[in-house]
Each structure stands twice: as structure tokens, then as C-alpha cells.
TrEMBL record:
Residues 67-84 have a biased composition (Low complexity). InterPro entries: Cro/C1-type_HTH, Lambda_DNA-bd_dom_sf, TPR-like_helical_dom_sf. SUPFAM superfamilies: lambda repressor-like DNA-binding domains, TPR-like. This is Helix-turn-helix domain-containing protein. Residues 67-87 are annotated as: Disordered. It holds the Pfam family HTH_31. It comes from the Bacteria. PROSITE patterns: HTH_CROC1. Residues 10-63 form the HTH cro/C1-type domain.
Length: 402
């Protein structure tokens, strides 16, 4: 291999491919400024970027080899006298400091991963879990590659552990939505393990809260309350994890018919969330907002059989109603229709219950983990021998067979 540097070889291969710096940067979703620094040997790209450059430019492994080749070491000239200060002593010390700070993982890469997670957590309330899962897998695979990178700072390593924890947590939630419980368990364990290594109590608390929700959907309401309480005990004070875990406890008490405990937790959720600033974006799954408190109250009171549950459900429907035919229906809008249907069914208004349940089904936003809630309404309507019960049953079967 010639004495050509990595940057010189990169420039040569780019020009041979007939690409400008701007075109190559666009192809690989890179910043053109970074690409310029690569070509001028002022910055070395991370290993994943080197592989992408080598593949796109058909360099046959040359760029990878030049990126990993060690710089030539200067020849030594004899053995220095004992105790003599060598000219290289100072530069060796500076080189050691540089290598401690050197990393194949740029701050820009970590920032982009953070933005990618926020995008996915924001998309979650209105997206199909089938659409989110491939994107989560892709990012988790990339994070796994970066964790294995040989050169990274301790700060970068910890940052990657935190990001891996968040992505694994959201992936577990999506698996639960799809009733895929074996991978959900594995993802939750990974998230909890990464959070422990990174000393990130908020992610650990979310893991317990997520498991509480899964346990609740499985019908073990007492265990769900215990898991929610444990999540609250480790969550940072005032955090979204603490508030959501409190809300989950209230849902468990409602399913158990414990009215006093339910009302206490509803009051506590509103007290904890009353002074929270509205997050940006508002629909972020891991940032509590007033809309979540309203939707939580509607579901909790509907399960308890409190007549106010219907009023709260209608408020949520009005708040999240799509403004046009092209706007995706938020999951809270569909869930509020299920809450309204349950309230109407319990009050003997079976026609209204069937209509509300039908709207929820047609929204396409009822995740498999929530099918059981629609089934409760279908059972009420069927038991009441409503003429439209057959149509609702058909819609339910179609939804659950997808």
C-alpha cells in the first residue's frame, strides 16, 4: 500500500466515482463539513462511516485499511542515558491525553441518535407498532456496533448505554403492543441492564412501569399495583416516570374495584402533573403532559364505573379529534372511544356503546395489547342482544385477525 493518507485515498475514490463532496455527503447522510475534514485528514470518521464510504465508492477495503493503519513510528537512535529527559517525553504525555479523549464516536453521531429516539417516541402515539419496530431494530443494531467500537471515551460509552436503554425500552413497549411477549421480556431486561450500568434510574423506573402495564393487561391487577409502586420508589422525584407509574397504580386499583385507593392516585397524578410545562413535542411517550393526565383519568374512572369517566372521555375525544381526513388518528382518540363505549354500555346505552367501539376499531389505532378492552364492550353489546351486535363482532374479528 502506498504512503497515501486516508483522506487522500478518499478524495481519489470520490473523484473516480464522479461525485462531488456535496453529492457524496447527501448519499450517506453526512455533513459536508465533516466530509471535507475527512479528506483533509483533520478528522477521522468512525468505523461505521468508513465502512459505508468504502462500500459506496467500491474501494475494495482500501479505505478501511487506511483508516485502521497505524501511523509510522520514528526510528530510535540508541539507548538514552538513565534519567535523561527525552525530547519525546512531553509529546508522549500529550499524545496519551489525546488518545484518552480520542473517540471513533463523534458528538454529532450521539446527538443524531438522541434526535432519532425523540422522533420515534413522538411518533409512537399515532403510529402502527408494525411500522416502528423495524426502525427501532435498525437503530439498536447501530448502537450495538458503536458500543463495540475500540476507540471511545468513557463519556461516549455511558451515553451509548443510556441511548441503548431508551431504544430497548421503547422496543419492548412496541413488542408488548403486538402481544410479542418473549422479545418484550428480552428487551426490558436489556433496557434495565443498560440503565443499571449507566446508573440511569429513570429508565429503570420506566422498565418497571412498562412491566406493570403488561401485567395489568394480563389480569394480574395486584401484581401490577406492586410493580407500579416499585417504579415510583426508584423514579427521580417529579419525573415523568414517577407520574406515569402512579397513574398505572391507579388503573390497577380501578380494575380491583378499590375506589378509595383509585381516587387517591388520580388526585396524586393531577397534583404531580399540574405544574409541569407542556413538553415539546407534546406527544413524546416518555414526557408527561396534561393530555396524558386527562386520558388516564378517563380510562381509570371508566374502569371503576364512575359516571365522571364518560365526561372525561368526551373531553379527550374533543381535544384529540382529527381536524381533517389526512391527519392520523392519535391513539388517545381511539382509546377514549373505548372508554366512552364502556361507560355507555354500563349505563345501558348499548347503541351508543356499539357506535363508539366501532369508531375505535375503524381508527386502526387499537393496538393488540388493548384488544381485550374492546372485547369487554363487545361482550356487553352481545349480552344485550343488540341488532347491531353481529356487525360489531365481525369488526372485532377482522381487527384481531390482522
Amino acid at each position: 500500500m502506498s504512503e497515501e493518507s486516508f483522506g487522500q485515498a478518499l478524495r481519489r475514490h470520490r473523484r473516480a466515482a464522479g461525485l462531488s463532496q456535496a453529492q457524496l455527503a447527501q448519499e450517506l447522510h453526512l455533513d459536508q463539513g465533516n466530509l471535507s475534514r475527512y479528506e483533509n485528514d483533520r478528522q477521522r470518521p468512525e468505523s461505521a462511516t468508513v465502512d459505508a464510504l468504502d462500500a459506496l465508492l467500491c474501494a475494495g477495503g482500501e479505505l478501511r485499511a487506511r483508516a485502521t493503519a497505524a501511523p509510522p513510528r520514528p526510528a530510535t537512535r540508541g539507548i538514552p542515558a538513565a534519567g535523561a529527559v527525552q525530547p519525546s517525553d512531553e509529546t508522549d504525555a500529550m499524545e496519551l491525553a489525546r488518545r484518552v479523549a480520542a473517540s471513533d464516536i463523534s458528538a454529532e453521531t450521539l446527538a443524531q441518535l438522541e434526535m432519532a429516539f425523540d422522533d420515534l417516541a413522538t411518533a409512537y402515539p399515532a403510529s402502527s407498532p408494525h411500522d416502528l419496530l423495524p426502525r427501532l431494530r435498525e437503530h439498536l443494531g447501530y448502537i450495538s456496533q458503536l458500543i463495540d467500537a475500540p476507540r471511545k471515551t468513557l463519556a461516549a460509552h455511558r451515553h451509548l448505554l443510556v441511548l441503548g436503554g431508551w431504544f430497548s425500552l421503547l422496543a419492548a413497549t412496541v413488542h408488548i403492543d403486538l402481544n410479542q411477549h418473549a422479545p418484550a421480556t428480552a428487551r426490558l431486561r436489556t433496557a434495565a441492564g443498560l440503565a443499571t450500568h449507566a446508573e440511569q434510574d429513570e429508565i429503570r423506573a420506566w422498565c418497571y412501569e412498562t412491566e406493570a402495564w403488561r401485567t395489568l393487561t394480563g389480569g394480574d391487577y395486584r401484581r401490577a399495583a406492586e410493580l407500579s409502586q416499585h417504579a415510583q420508589s426508584i423514579a427521580p422525584s417529579g419525573s415523568s416516570a414517577e407520574i406515569q407509574a402512579t397513574a398505572q397504580e391507579g388503573r390497577a386499583w380501578a380494575r380491583l374495584g378499590k375506589a378509595d385507593a383509585t381516587y387517591r392516585t388520580v388526585e396524586r397524578v393531577h397534583s404531580l402533573s399540574a405544574h409541569l410545562p407542556k413538553p415539546v413535542p407534546a406527544e413524546h411517550h416518555y414526557r408527561y403532559d396534561p393530555g396524558k393526565a386527562a386520558a388516564y383519568t378517563a380510562t381509570t374512572l371508566a374502569w371503576l364505573g364512575d359516571p365522571e369517566g364518560e365526561q372525561h372521555a368526551r373531553q379527550v375525544i374533543d381535544r384529540f379529534r382529527p381536524t381533517n381526513d389526512f391527519q392520523p388518528w392519535p391513539r388517545r382518540y381511539a382509546t377514549a372511544h373505548v372508554d366512552l363505549a364502556l361507560c355507555a354500555a354500563r349505563n345501558g346505552r348499548l347503541d351508543e356503546a356499539a357506535d363508539a367501539a366501532q369508531t375505535a376499531i375503524e381508527s386502526g389505532q387499537v393496538a393488540p395489547s388493548n384488544w381485550w378492552r374492546v372485547r369487554e364492550v363487545v361482550n356487553h353489546v352481545t349480552a344485550g342482544k343488540l341488532p347491531t351486535a353481529g356487525e360489531l363482532q365481525d369488526s372485532y374479528r377482522t381487527m384481531t385477525s390482522r
